[in-house]
């Protein structure tokens, strides 16, 4: 096993154990070995950048420099994924990039950017019928969360309505009948949130 593979495995283990600061350091070391600025990223490199960005966002370091680095590596991943032919890249790759850029923007209280990133993520997710229903639902819901923080009451209600309509559509013909109970519970929560909105 190469040293890069060893570092990647260690980084993955730390990330999955939620040791995000340690994982971020390992991904930084990994990318120093594997990343060359003048060459296009393959799927594995894009995935490494996404995981590095995720760990930076979730790490104990909340300073502006960390957030700037996170933005840069996630943008690298986004551009990398966009340059890979659609039939060769994982469908959730770009969605992950935009969701994490949305999360980062929300942490920085840049609500307009966060809402835009989650909108892009949900559009990509809704366009791919092979993905788990949870992926587009998460993007739709998180866009609503951003709009709520942003005090965009009408848009927040619309976002919840879209999430509810999506669940209603998915429930008619679920990919897995075991998911129906989860869908119903989540739908009830979304309806409760919507009905508690004061216009």
UniProtKB/TrEMBL annotation:
Gene Ontology cellular component terms for the protein in this record: nucleoplasm
Pfam families found in the cross-reference section: SHNi-TPR (PF10516)
InterPro entries: NASP-like, Tetratricopeptide_SHNi-TPR_dom, TPR-like_helical_dom_sf
All residue ranges annotated as the Tetratricopeptide SHNi-TPR domain in the record: 96-121
Domain of life assignment: Eukaryota
GO MF annotation list: histone binding
SUPFAM superfamilies for this protein: TPR-like
Keywords in alphabetical order: Repeat, TPR repeat
Gene Ontology BP terms: CENP-A containing chromatin assembly; DNA replication-dependent chromatin assembly
Name of the molecule in the record: Tetratricopeptide SHNi-TPR domain-containing protein
Protein species of origin: Tritrichomonas foetus
């Amino acid at each position: 096993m190469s040293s890069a593979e060893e570092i990647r495995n260690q980084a993955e283990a730390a990330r999955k154990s939620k040791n995000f600061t340690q994982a971020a350091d390992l991904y930084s070391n990994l990318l120093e070995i594997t990343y060359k600025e003048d060459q296009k990223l393959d799927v594995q490199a894009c995935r490494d950048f996404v995981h590095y960005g995720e760990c930076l966002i979730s790490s104990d370091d909340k300073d502006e420099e960390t957030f700037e680095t996170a933005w840069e590596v996630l943008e690298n991943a986004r551009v990398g994924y966009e340059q890979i032919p659609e039939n060769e890249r994982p469908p959730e790759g770009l969605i992950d990039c935009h969701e994490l850029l949305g999360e980062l923007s929300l942490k920085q209280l840049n609500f307009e950017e966060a809402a835009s990133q989650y909108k892009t993520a949900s559009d990509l997710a809704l366009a791919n019928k092979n993905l788990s229903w949870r992926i587009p639902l998460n993007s739709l819901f998180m866009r609503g969360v951003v709009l709520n923080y942003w005090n965009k009451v009408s848009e927040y209600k619309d976002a919840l309505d879209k999430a509810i309509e999506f669940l209603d559509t998915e429930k008619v013909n679920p990919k897995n009948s075991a998911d129906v109970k989860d869908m119903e519970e989540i739908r009830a929560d979304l309806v409760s949130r919507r009905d508690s909105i004061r216009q």
